[in-house]
Amino acid sequence: MDHFFFIWVGFAFALGAAIGSWLNVCIYRVPYEKSLLWPGSHCGHCFQRVRWYDNIPLISYWVLRGRCRTCKTPFSIRYFLIELFTGLVFAGLFYLDIGLNVQGMDFFRRQAWRIQFGWVPVQAWLFWLGHAVLVSFLIVASVIDLDHMEIPLPVTVTGTLTGLVFATCMPWPWPNTDRPPLIELRLGKVVVVDPVPVLGFQPWPLWRPDELPKWMPPGSWQLGLATGLAGVLAGVVLVRGVRFLFGLGRGLEGMGLGDADLMMMAGAFLGWQATLVAFFVSVFPGLVLGLGQVVLRGSQTIPFGPSLALGIVLTLYGWRWIGPQVQVLFFDSTLLLLLGGTGAVLLLVVSLMLRLLFGAPPPEDDERPAAQG
Ligand SMILES: [Zn+2]
User: Is the pLDDT of residue 367 over 50?
Assistant: First the structure.
């Protein structure tokens, strides 16, 4: 990598910090259904408007030493930390997506010699932008979930619609243009012609490329939108299904509807296969964060949003390696139905066992608001 490339990494960081400043506004105002545009940023103590030169991401916090210029009331360091985190994430994703080409985009590989001299093609910018936008929504949803134990619908619905726009404009295998490698079925046996299917901005298409209907060819907006919609459906159905089965067995709803909305949003970006996998991947950060929560706060109710967000990002960036492991499952409808059925039965059995072990749940869970569950 040449230093010209790192100018853009720096630019991504600065943009991320500025967006992080906006995410702070969303995190602070959306849960109270306040307007995001009016009034402008002001001190919560003296209501003095924050002037533009006191509202520069990252820098202003240190210039003012974390205090209001007028009344000297300290601001929470969290504003600064979220700006810093968003900046680091934007720069990190830019480096992973375009510098390292972690997802192995053929298109970027062929452009690598230009990219290292800072000549970043517009496709690469859009590829990164899609990921940066997804992660921005995930940050807002996660922090609000940590604060309020709920994920507001305005965040996830806006995220879902944005994801569907990206899905329609950047259909699989975009930005790659080559004919995708196929897997084949011969005498009922799966023969992998090319062990690594082409990844695009959408990790995978709706279904096996060779079995797609004529009006939905690779690279068409129809395929992109259908892939996004299938992801939305997967997110909505999966979490609600788990919630329903768990409730049936244990008598307690394990997950909130906000979690379902979060997976719906991820589905619009990831398509249904990666969304399903992300749900299972998030169990691992979920266990770690959940244990931490119980130890640190002594709380039994754990927001699952941050774990889901981590699972989504890990799955998206690991799909190059995860995909080949699971592709046999996802492109065979019989196997898929069998697996889904087995999973549902297992979940019901486990939740029934939990009920037998820990007894029936208390009749009213008054710690959480009824609307969000
Ligand atoms: Zn003030």
Answer: no
Cα 19 to ligand 1 centre (Å): 23
Q: What percent of the chain has pLDDT over 90?
A: 44
**Is residue 182 pLDDT above 60, yes or no?**
no
Cα 34 to middle of ligand 1, angstroms: 20
Using the mean position of ligand 1's atoms as its centre, give its distance from the Cα of residue 45 in Å: 5
* Ligand 1 midpoint to CA 23 (Å): 21
Structure confidence at residue 372 (pLDDT): 41
pTM: 0.88
CA torsion 94-95-100-102 (nearest 10°) is -50
Give the Cα-Cα-Cα angle 104, 263, 15 (nearest 5 degrees): 60
Total number of domains constituting the chain: 1
Whether 113 maps to a domain, the answer reads no
**Residue 54 located in a structural domain:** no
38 within a domain of the structure (yes/no): no
Residue 50 CA, ligand 1 centroid: distance in Å: 9
Domain boundaries, position 304: 151-373
Q: Give me ligand 1 centre to Cα 43, in Å.
A: 5
49 CA to centre of ligand 1 in angstroms: 8
When the pLDDT of each residue in the chain is averaged and rounded to a whole number, the result is: 86
Evaluate whether 37 touches 59 at the Cβ level (below 8 Å).
no
Query: What angle, rounded to 10 degrees, do the helices at 77-94 and 122-148 form?
Result: 150
Other residues' Cβ atoms within 10 Å of the Cβ of residue 246 = 20
Averaged over 81-97, what is the pLDDT? 97
Separation of CA 74 and ligand 1 centre (Å): 8
In a domain? residue 60 = no
Distance 64 CA to ligand 1 centre (A): 12
